[in-house]
Write a structure and sequence with these properties.
Blueprint lengths: L4 H5 L14 H9 L5 H8 L17 H27 L13 H12 L12 H9 L6 E3 L1 E2 L3 E8 L2 H9 L2 H5 L2 E6 L1 H10 L16 E5 L2 E9 L8 E9 L3 E4 H11 L5 E10 L8 E2 L7 E2 L6 H21 L3 H21 L7 E15 L5 E12 L5 H25 L2 E6 L2 E5 L6 H14 L13 E3 L4 E4 L2 E6 L2 E7 L2 E7 L5 E6 L35 H15 L19 E5 L3 H5 L2 H4 L13 E5 L3 E2 L4 E2 L2 E4 L4 H6 L2 E2 L14 H4 L11 E2 L7 E2 L1 E2 L1 E4 L3 E3 L6 H7 L8 E4 L4 H15 L1 H8 L3 H10 L5 H39 L1 H8 L3 H8 L7 H16 L1
Parallel strand pairs: 7-31
Antiparallel strand pairs: 1-14, 2-29, 3-15, 3-16, 3-19, 4-9, 5-8, 5-9, 6-7, 10-11, 12-13, 14-15, 17-18, 19-20, 20-21, 22-23, 23-26, 24-25, 26-27, 28-30, 32-33
Helix pairs in contact: 2-4, 3-4, 5-12, 7-11, 7-13, 10-13, 11-12, 13-14, 21-22, 21-24, 22-23, 22-24, 24-25, 24-27
Length: 857
């Protein structure tokens, strides 16, 4: 409210009433986990006023629409009141509710309430050491071993994988330590690796020894390797055989995993051991979720162990209350166990490797520190800022320990004579060999599963490697204690379906993945689901939190596999798939909003695409005339057909023709063939067992942590600047420059520039600047070489295939007749077929055309 003129004359001023912005959906996601619509949230929280429905938006205002809008505001307010009351009950007074943006924010609020000081405040960790530590950081392991082939499995996952690793390695002591000590430990690490066996890892006292990072000389060892396996600018991680001509740092846990998987000890060059020293002053006890019974003393308790112990006790009470049909108590206990779960997950990993990307309008000069410890200059547009509790040492220990758990399960399965189908961060499916009997498989699988029980660090002893609910029989909608044969059909990392078979051999879906589908809007809702596909036996949340149409898609994929036609997935029965495929995004960055700059011109503000408003991204075919893929976008519209009518190419602002847009059916046509590129025998049509690649490295390229938002980048068509790339370190320049120079001679500068998506001028600058070239440009050119090599080999194979077919035709019809038919000199054709001359592209095209004519005849 503005001060009046009279008040201003008298020197009086109305004080500003500043408030704080809270996004209710975001707050709900942090406190309740998952994604919430206003309708679902109001129902869940028991709000007095529920959300109303509106027939359309953007039309003429009427009484019904005003009532709809007012009710939205009222329902939102009531939801906020209930969420705010829940948050106030947590007693996190050091962090106001408007600072809770995610589950991670909640985790940081707990640490702040305890008085935990950030590790970044410790002055003795220099950037050089941080660079080495971050070079050992990899994410979770997610791989497919039996691809596009139905396998009988036992699906197991580790109990609270990250909190468990934290408890076993004693990492809470690092969080509360006054300081950390580090020392060289090469000799003791070598001795440990020589002696350690998988049975030693069954002893909890072995795990604190793993708090080291190790510099090794890879020589066929199995390590996590982040690379562009598919040649499509998507970085992914595969545990592959690695050989390098220079040393690389890994966690000690990764070195142990390599020994388990290869029976070979990695060559250790250096090792650094880390130990926590003392305790921070003024730490405070807290009550988790505001419950006095859930009190944790940071000096006496292991935070992570205590959280899981508390949750186990609550879940026991929850089961008893369900059996007693005490609905009120069930609701209360369910909220408490969820709060404990969120707290455990939010404080045991993500916050320690939080890097917030700040997008800049112009390139910025930064210094990048990598595995060598030496800094080098780089130019980037996205600046990565560490979060408050950034602690990369903990992040790399936790993920390294989780990968070791999976390696242990793989080794134990192999030793037991069984195998595995796929793994995903904290789970692994043990698989039955074809020749093995059912009883023998279950006995061996349970032996592997039970092996981990001795490693359980919690008060409540029991399975650490748990048999998941999907393995158990369902009767009248409820899980029984009887195991039911479970099968899987896995395509690639995070793309899989688990199912039972009924007496008629038909599939009953138990768990399906939405990976690669989550960006798409619903082509149809539950009410439109086809009657030919049975309704799911378990709830959509138990299926993996998927939509009904995603269940139906996987049903069709599995159905084709059961009929021995896994390539021929029939989607005709799924309604709505002929509509244009549409993905919804929010205009949360200036780059996304900039696409609508011309669209917004001369439009009233209410009709513009505004900051944080929704936009739609569609998919297009390649336009034959321009040989360039268009990038269609549209303002948000609930009616997908209307959205398609007004969409335009964001690069040219030209309206898009409806025929150029891909439908859902076209977009999903190869979903079931998606390659597992990180492994051999994982290409589109490959079926069966995959095997590890052998990676030979010539250099290391440094990228930012946030570079793997691949789905958003792929479907929105974001440029390479969307991911943070620092390029290669100077010590690798000479070797890479030599490879780039040779590639230019072999393929030509223009071909290399096109493959690397850089200008011809940049290629010329690299060749003339030598060591003074831009690191990112050099890295792009280097990454393009394998793509050119693959295309070159493909061209050679294609040429040979054509010539072989020509030889057959010439044998049948005569050389003279075929040469005349193709319009090629007979003597020249004879020299080509004898291998004395290579065919030009023009002649090869004539030969291909002639072959087609002969086939038609």
């Amino acid at each position: 409210q503005l001060s009046s003129r009279g008040m201003r004359r008298r020197g009086q001023k109305i004080p500003a009433r500043r408030g704080h912005f809270v996004d209710v959906r975001t707050l709900a996601g942090a406190l309740l986990s998952g994604s919430w619509s206003l309708e679902k949230l109001a129902k869940h929280l028991g709000a007095e006023h529920k959300k109303l429905e509106a027939e359309e938006h953007g039309g003429r205002l009427n009484q019904e629409y005003i009532q709809y809008a007012v009710r939205d505001v009222q329902a939102t307010w009531e939801c906020f009141e209930r969420l705010n009351k829940q948050y106030e009950g947590y007693g996190l007074t050091e962090t106001p509710v408007d600072k809770i943006y995610s589950e991670a924010s909640l985790g940081k609020a707990y640490l702040k309430q305890m008085g935990v000081k950030p590790w970044r405040d410790q002055p003795d960790f220099l950037p050089e050491l941080l660079g080495i530590i971050m070079s050992t950081y990899y994410g979770g392991r997610s791989e497919v071993h039996i691809r596009r082939e139905i396998a009988r499995i036992l699906y197991c996952d580790f109990l609270s994988m990250y909190p468990t690793v934290c408890a076993l390695m004693g990492l809470w002591h690092f969080v509360t330590a006054k300081r950390m000590e580090r020392r060289g430990a090469a000799t003791e690490v070598r001795e440990f690796l020589e002696q350690v066996t998988v049975n030693d890892l069954q002893k909890p006292e072995t795990w604190p020894i793993l708090r080291s990072i190790v510099q090794v000389q890879p020589d066929g060892d199995v390590f996590p390797v982040r690379s562009e396996y598919g040649g499509d600018s998507q970085y992914t991680i595969g545990t592959n055989h690695l050989t390098a001509d220079h040393p690389i740092w890994f966690t000690l846990a990764d070195c142990v995993a390599s020994k388990l998987l290869t029976d070979k000890v990695p060559e250790v060059l250096q090792a650094i051991r880390f130990d926590p020293v003392g305790k921070q002053a003024d730490l405070q006890s807290i009550d988790i979720a505001g419950k006095a019974d859930y009190r944790i003393d940071p000096y006496e308790d292991d935070f992570y162990k205590q959280l899981i112990d508390l949750r186990s006790a609550v879940n026991d009470d929850l089961k008893r209350s369900k059996n007693a049909d005490d609905a009120a108590r069930v609701s209360e206990l369910d909220a408490e166990q969820l709060a404990l779960k969120i707290c455990a997950n939010a404080t045991s990993y993500g916050i320690f490797v939080e890097l917030n990307v700040d997008e800049q309008d112009k390139f910025q000069e930064v210094t990048c520190y990598g595995a060598s410890g030496a800094g080098f200059a780089a130019r980037v547009r996205n600046i990565e800022e560490p979060g408050r509790y950034f602690h990369p040492l903990l992040a790399t220990f936790i993920t390294g320990g989780a990968r070791l758990m999976l390696a242990m399960a793989e080794r134990l399965a192999t030793d037991a004579g069984i195998t595995w189908a796929f793994c995903d961060t904290d789970s692994m499916t043990l698989a039955k060999p074809e020749e093995m009997g059912e009883a023998d498989f279950l006995e061996k699988s349970k032996r592997v599963q039970n092996w981990f029980t001795a490693l359980n660090p919690y008060e409540k002893k029991g399975p650490l490697f748990k048999i998941e609910d999907a393995n158990y029989q369902i009767e009248r909608g409820k899980k029984t204690d009887q195991l039911e044969p479970l099968y899987c059909f896995a395509v690639s990392a995070k793309r899989y379906a688990l199912f039972n078979l009924n007496k008629r051999g038909q599939q009953i879906m138990r768990k399906v993945s939405a990976h690669g589908l989550g960006h798409l809007l619903l082509p149809y809702d539950k009410g439109e689901a086809p009657k030919k596909i049975p309704k799911p036996t378990v709830s959509l949340s138990d299926l993996g939190g998927v939509e009904r149409w995603q269940h139906d898609l996987w049903y069709c994929i599995v159905q084709a596999a059961l009929k021995d036609t896994p390539e021929q997935v029939k989607l005709d029965d799924l309604p709505g798939l002929r509509r244009p495929a549409v993905s919804r995004y929010a205009a949360t960055t200036p780059n996304l909003l900039r696409w609508f700059k011309k669209y917004n011109v001369e439009k009233p503000y209410r009709d513009q695409v505004r900051p944080f408003g929704f936009l739609l991204a569609l998919q297009s075919h390649f336009v034959a005339s321009s040989k360039k893929a268009t990038r269609p976008v549209s303002p948000y519209d609930k009616d997908l057909e209307k959205a398609a009518e007004v969409c335009f190419d964001r690069d040219t602002d030209s309206p898009m023709v409806r025929d150029y847009l891909k439908s859902y059916q076209e977009t999903l046509a190869q979903y079931h063939l998606h390659p597992e590129a990180k492994f051999l025998d994982g290409d589109y049509t490959d079926i069966g067992v995959t095997s590890r690649r052998h990676i030979y490295t010539t250099a290391i390229e440094y990228i930012g942590k946030e570079a793997n938002r691949w789905e958003e980048q792929f479907y929105l068509g974001l440029e390479s600047e969307a991911q943070t790339e620092y390029g290669v370190a100077p010590e690798d320049y000479e070797q890479i420059l030599d490879l780039v120079t040779r590639a230019c001679k072999k393929f030509g500068q223009r071909a290399l520039a096109k493959a690397a998506r850089v200008s011809l001028r940049e290629v010329s600058a690299v060749l003339h600047s030598g060591r003074n070239t831009v690191p990112i440009t050099l890295a792009k050119l280097y990454r393009a070489i394998p793509r050119l090599e693959a295309a070159f080999l493909e061209k050679i194979e294609h040429t040979q295939d054509v010539l072989n077919e020509v030889k057959v035709c010439c044998h049948r019809s005569g050389l003279r007749r075929f040469a005349a038919h193709a319009g090629v000199d007979q003597a020249n054709l004879a020299r080509i077929l004898s291998g004395r001359r290579k065919p030009s592209e023009a002649i090869l095209a004539k030969l291909e055309l002639a072959l087609k004519r002969f086939q038609d005849i």
